[in-house]
Amino acid sequence: MARFQVAAQHPYGPSVGQLVDRLAALPGIGRKSAERLAQHLLGCDEAEALALAQAIQDVRHNVKHCPNCFNLTEDAECEICRDSRRDPQVVCVVEQPKDLLVIEATGVFQGQYHVLGGRISPLSGVGPDDLNIAALVRRVRKQGVREIVMGTNPTLEGDGTALYISNLLADDNVRITRLARGIASGSVLEFANREMLADAMKGRQAF
Amino acid sequence: MARFQVAAQHPYGPSVGQLVDRLAALPGIGRKSAERLAQHLLGCDEAEALALAQAIQDVRHNVKHCPNCFNLTEDAECEICRDSRRDPQVVCVVEQPKDLLVIEATGVFQGQYHVLGGRISPLSGVGPDDLNIAALVRRVRKQGVREIVMGTNPTLEGDGTALYISNLLADDNVRITRLARGIASGSVLEFANREMLADAMKGRQAF
Fold it and tell me: For chain B, how many structural domains are there in total?
């Protein structure tokens, strides 16, 4: 199948090779799936294929970052920041918009969010100035935030980012918490790793 | 996750809901993958996302059916029909362009192809007139074809389509063959089904 590797050599011509290349660049789509999707886009109704192209263009033109929390939105301000029932004094800090979505899906958080746009990662050349950290500090002071819930990923870099932010806010009168760690609900102790069990033991709660 | 089922209710707004719907309509892409792909298309470089949209539009505008064999091509005639080293007197009949590609990838066929655009399927309302069958008959007579290799799928409908075509050409001086059936190279006899083994026994060859 070596002939399918280079765009210009696709048997249908360069446009199809280009499309296969573009599809294969998407996460989780391999060369074979890309070829299959391209076949579908060639064989389906023209309106269906062009509607997908239009939908991609529309999201890139219409969806922006919320100027307050940096969540994604099509409006001037995001749905959550606009919602007057949400408590603006409790802010959950997350790395990416998708993290916000999974926390929001639980339905247990009633405050606002702040999307950093990543995490501090010296190896990838991402420093504090590349993230929405200064905006968070301004927001804390302006909104009179009384609690920051760190919802960064439980990784070395996620924890490091949370620690950096909590140091920045050390002199502000704001309580800083983080998501609880322990054993996952519905999991089996036998397969829990050492860090998970150690977290669960250290954070043990009254029954 | 019920809130993600209806486009208008996507938390980022209707454009993202629309994109997720369009992606989930692709074969082999479920709701969760569609949501993940939409997140990627929102988060990647704008140029990368718009290039994918452009590639979809380009294939629909540039790729046409070859007027001779109905394969897909960006040129006036497809690569295979243009190739003077291919034998125009031996034509392999396939249902879809993708079937042509897999046969072509074996590298053992030196003739031309004819893409029917489907198979006769009364239950789906597809009759002989909906396929490129009349064009095949004209081509057989015009090109002086001496062999038709039936490369339709080894299913009831694929076999029926091949039988219909061979009846149409009964009075023409053309040899009609079909792809050999038997056990798959590299497979294990123990897991071969009855039809496969029966085909292999009936078609046994000198060693």
Answer: 2
Confirm whether the ipTM is greater than 0.85.
no
Minimum mean pLDDT range among A132-146, A189-203, B125-139, B171-185: A189-203
- What the block records as the tokens of B61 is 């505008």
For residue A7, the number of C-alpha atoms closer than 13 Å in the C-beta half-sphere is: 14
Residue A6's CATH number: 1.10.8.420
* A-chain residues near B5 (CB < 8 A): none
Q: Residue A196 CA to chain centroid, in angstroms?
A: 23
Global pTM exceeds 0.90: no
> Is residue B133, in this structure, part of any structural domain at all?
yes
In the chain, the amino acid numbered B42 is L
A window 7-36, beta carbon within 8 A of B: 11-16, 18-19, 21-23, 25-29, 33, 36
Is A74 a domain residue? no
pLDDT in tens, B37-93: 999 999 889 999 999 999 999 999 999 999 999 999 999 999 999 999 999 999 999
CA end-to-end distance (rounded Å), chain B = 61
Helix (H, G, I), strand (E, B) or coil at A45: coil
